[in-house]
UniProtKB/TrEMBL annotation:
<dbReference type="InterPro" id="IPR002559">
    <property type="entry name" value="Transposase_11"/>
</dbReference>
<dbReference type="Pfam" id="PF01609">
    <property type="entry name" value="DDE_Tnp_1"/>
</dbReference>
<feature type="domain" description="Transposase IS4 N-terminal">
    <location>
        <begin position="2"/>
        <end position="79"/>
    </location>
</feature>
<dbReference type="InterPro" id="IPR012337">
    <property type="entry name" value="RNaseH-like_sf"/>
</dbReference>
<feature type="domain" description="Transposase IS4-like">
    <location>
        <begin position="97"/>
        <end position="338"/>
    </location>
</feature>
<dbReference type="InterPro" id="IPR024473">
    <property type="entry name" value="Transposases_IS4_N"/>
</dbReference>
<dbReference type="InterPro" id="IPR047952">
    <property type="entry name" value="Transpos_IS4"/>
</dbReference>
<dbReference type="Pfam" id="PF13006">
    <property type="entry name" value="Nterm_IS4"/>
</dbReference>
<protein>
    <submittedName>
        <fullName>IS4 family transposase</fullName>
    </submittedName>
</protein>
Amino acid sequence: MDEVVHAAGRKERRVRLLPARVVVYFVLAMALFTDCGYRGVWAALTAGLPGTLVPDPSTAALRQARRRLGTAPLALLFDRLRGPLGTADTMGVFWRGLRLVAWDGTCLEVADSGANIAHFTRHGVRTTRPAGYPQVRLTALVECGTRAVIDAVFGPLRHKELPQAHDLLPALKPGMLLLADRGYDGFEAIRDAADTGADLLWRVQAGRLLPVIHPLPDGTYLTLIADRRSGDRLAKWLHRGRITPLPPRLTAITMRVISYEVTVTDSGGTRRTSTVRLVTTLLDPNKHPACELATLYHQRWEIETAYYGLKVTLRGADRVLRSHTVDGVEQELYALLTVFQVTRMAITHAATTAGIDPDRLSFTIALRTARHTVIRADASGPARMAAILTHTRNLAAPRRRSRTSPRCVKRTLSPYAYNKTRGSVGHKTTVTTTVTLLTRTARP
């Protein structure tokens, strides 16, 4: 704490009742006790300390201390703690020597103040009434096996996911396998991500042109993903029936296409089948089997679980960030990310030591234990947390139940639109994944 405060130039010049280091702890405690006001957070932070040594600042004093501290110390603290946590001894982190990572974007609501509205803006709705709260757009790169945050960027809602993902490229390294959904399948995004040395396993949109350049024996094939101009030339070449060699000087990337079907059978016996198309830079079908890659892509949803832990379990369901200024929102977001990352560090360390998959350890129990540790000022907190997390009664099942939850409007604008939430409860399902052989030579 002292190092980041000093590096940010926030070290106080005179002795204060609320030194900068203490304020950093207070801001982190705000992220841990999101349901408490300033005085409640301070009470939880100092409850286990001798009463004669603890000052009793007012809400205004705590607010002014936050403003003096600024955003830089929290940003530096998160920058020191972010990064992958899994090691070779951590279960579920690597696949055939590649570290599984994923990126995606999400939004968080912030306080409805004039400064926040002007900077972050509200999201659009289909009615003439504006949305209730301004929002921050956050894009993160997450380690799938531990759900640790490797890096994250955020900004106003007008900042789109693709530019934010581009800012995460320095965090990609050789030896990583990046999973992404259909929103990132543009040529520039694929090219820039592949240039980092990381391997890719991305889903692509159904209408994307993926010509069969070279069929592979396992039913997959090699294709060319080109920029817009080269894509038009490829389309004309296909339209002519391939009677000439490939057009010269194409700006394109060679990738392997894996197409497979997913059949979902719910508890009522209803079956739904959908086709998924993936492209990958892993071109060798013997070294990287298509069936394993098709199953592996499901790990992309680990980032959604990580966002749930950040936005619901840690922040609290239906809560908005409390800060009414732009600097306060950024400071609060860095504190949330830091507390989330530290909790993931504790979970990963406990799981690795016990030889357990981190997925089986509860993020909720870890947060509850951390809150009790802070309130009681328990010096044995880390060891106690590891013992609680790995206790038999607190471990999740080795294999998750297969369930689906249909997308629907859960936060309706009208209090009378009860039918819009009908069917939003998850149902037990049976999922069958089949890799299908493609025989057509044009557009799969």
